[in-house]
Amino acid sequence: MATDYRRQHPVCLPLGCWPIELGSVSLRYAAYGADYARRALGRVKRYVDVILAARYSTWIKPVSRAKPPGNNRPTSSSDSVVLAHQTSADGPRAVRLKDIAVLAGVSPITVSRALSRPDIVAEATVARVRAVVERLGYVPNRHAGSLASNRSQLVAAVVPTIANAIFSDTLLAFTSALDARGYQVMFGLSGFDGDSEARLLENVLGRRPDGILLTGARHTARTRMRLAAAGIPIVETWDTSEEPLDMTVGFSHRDVGHALGQHLLDCGCRRPALILGDNDRAAARGRGFKEACAERGYTSVPEKVLASPTTTRQGREALRELLAESPDIDAVSCSSDLLALGAIIEAGQRGIDVPGDLSVAGFGDLDFASQLEPALTTVRIDGQGIGRLAALNLLERIEKHVASGNGAPKQVDVGFELVARASTRPRPHKPENRR
Amino acid sequence: MATDYRRQHPVCLPLGCWPIELGSVSLRYAAYGADYARRALGRVKRYVDVILAARYSTWIKPVSRAKPPGNNRPTSSSDSVVLAHQTSADGPRAVRLKDIAVLAGVSPITVSRALSRPDIVAEATVARVRAVVERLGYVPNRHAGSLASNRSQLVAAVVPTIANAIFSDTLLAFTSALDARGYQVMFGLSGFDGDSEARLLENVLGRRPDGILLTGARHTARTRMRLAAAGIPIVETWDTSEEPLDMTVGFSHRDVGHALGQHLLDCGCRRPALILGDNDRAAARGRGFKEACAERGYTSVPEKVLASPTTTRQGREALRELLAESPDIDAVSCSSDLLALGAIIEAGQRGIDVPGDLSVAGFGDLDFASQLEPALTTVRIDGQGIGRLAALNLLERIEKHVASGNGAPKQVDVGFELVARASTRPRPHKPENRR
DNA sequence: CTGTTAGCGCATTCAT
DNA sequence: ATGAATGCGCTAACAG
Prior knowledge:
Two copies of one chain form a homodimer.
Chain A lengths: L4 H4 L25 H14 L9 H10 L30 H8 L3 H9 L6 H14 L5 H8 L4 E6 L5 H16 L3 E6 L4 H13 L4 E5 L5 H10 L3 E4 L9 E4 L2 H14 L5 E6 L2 H16 L7 E4 L5 H14 L5 E4 L2 H13 L9 E3 L16 E3 L2 H21 L6 E4 L3 E3 L16
Parallel strand pairs in A: 1-2, 1-3, 3-4, 4-5, 5-11, 6-7, 6-8, 8-9
Antiparallel strand pairs in A: 10-12
Chain A binds a DNA duplex through helix 5 and helix 7.
């Protein structure tokens, strides 16, 4: 039963603490000072709730130090429930490592080890510590841990947006892989402008991540310096780069565009056009596309560039405009599947047969691409693979960094897959499933 | 020009530091000890790079303390460049507040204030500090700050997934609003199972966020206790709840379903069906839908439940199965626009006219909904508004928390908007744009 | 296997 | 307007 203990009591319970059965309270208050004992007992009588070392640890310490000859460890799980509810005016206080130590009858460092490296601690000790942790709901303060160890177990992922469905696979895989190794991922949304990216980075670096994942291309000189100065492994994804900061896991957008251009021309198209989002990667694909066209003598490629993130509506409008300006186009390659969907819808509305009169290609192989009628030709990227590889490479560097210094720059090309479907069938074939 | 300084030097530069022009070096090495001076000067000659108090602050301190009668502050911006590149074996070290203080000729606390509350520090001092900070690229260590102040300036957002385009508006607005007030947002992906949510929460709470945003319904008793025990403001979004943890910003999914049911019946449908994702919110909408049907005497509603996150492919398949089992259905309400897209495509393939023979409704009003042919009837949620309101309410609590204790539970209902489009036109009208 | 000692880098409190 | 002293909660290094 989920009870909201917060409402039952006049003050919040300390971080990670909740009421438990009291059992036999062995409150040797004489050892703690009369004042404390009075307050503690008062609380106990009133709330019968968990008792917490909290602010009183200074009083407890001497007891633990005194080590009476007999046994100052809890004799049963119930009598270790010893202390007092927080009463100070400045709000509740969290359970600390030290509190666990006192209740488990060991030193703080042993608790630390029992939790982070149980293999080097005696089994019985670990069990005892775990029991107390569980009972008090202790959650270690990672700020303190990071500060002391100089390792944050935190990896930052700076992405332009999370709205892009195409990135989310990557981020999920990245997160999972790191999670499995005990790292947390902290997302930073840089938006599409480089200005806020600088501020974001400042914030992110303040949290001293052990590594950084970047998505989204061009960084200012200042940003690059800051990153280099941070001295932590960096992996850039979703692109190969001519001047990588550290590692990259991605593919050549130029090659994708080139392959799309060739494919459309192979399908018999003679007047291909482009609909592109206004980001670097889409532009690179556009460049590759035009190169492929130029190689076969088609030097003029009508083109529409739209504000990112691109939408289906933009796709419809762009095709409309393209047709108005260049009525003879017979193929259009879009920088996202959403744009392509818009183009297909617009074509349908105008009675333009796809692919009979107009071939349409997208990018991303989103869920719906294969389900459309006609099914959409697109480019599939192993977004999950990118995320996984980025995580693994980062981890390798992070762990190595502990021992040695830097590694050699590493570039991973995951390639891409052009998925030819009905929306760009070779011209000779007439589609069967026209409606 | 973006130079990768990391590769120019055998060791990484310290966090936030990069080479700068040296100017006139006033290295009074006599004060620092011969050994240090020898090394420092050796480095300076070899790299001509930035000079860093770093590990040597203990040596510097006495100088700063001595306060020679003249002026121990930098006389110009160039001669304050004083120290040595990091040479210790245990790797580079970050610039600290103390380093800035030494170079700016003030105490650490003054630097702290100059950066966080410049209004209470003399203008000239702030300027001097800022200059040094800028030059050394100092980035404050937030772990230390959080530990000392017991405020992390961090808000956690725990969501099932970021793939869902429908959440991303909320998250973006949430992030923006908090960013504007100096808070960082930390995302946690809970997935769709409650098991990993528990572990995630443990990790998240370890970072001591000042507040938490939750999306995605049912929490285990354990989770609820942990959250209550954390004693920080919590806002649950995208739903109203019967047993809220703290605050909620959302709407009634039951009411959405009810409105959809009424709408379809109003359109003249007499045999409505459901296609739902297998999450609580979709289920609640389904319940409302069936209630609306029951109110008018339609007690049997064919239904397909699919694994979340739902896809267009699932929508196609689900409609196929529904038609096989209940060939007489004349309306289908889907728990997402993607499912609805699939249903529309499948209907098109089978020659079933939408809305003539089958009305289709979705949920979310995704980008493409209005662009489809026929345009999709759906439900629009102000996702951005949810994010903004969640942030504002959280902020209010966070700031208030500093002064007083808890606030009263707060429930905000942002409502919803049923957007009736061509896919559910009233039966009498025959659609004009059939293909 | 466990304990002792000594900080990590910063902000709070109380001085001046 | 600025500074000194103190400690946040934890872990590293070294003892035993």
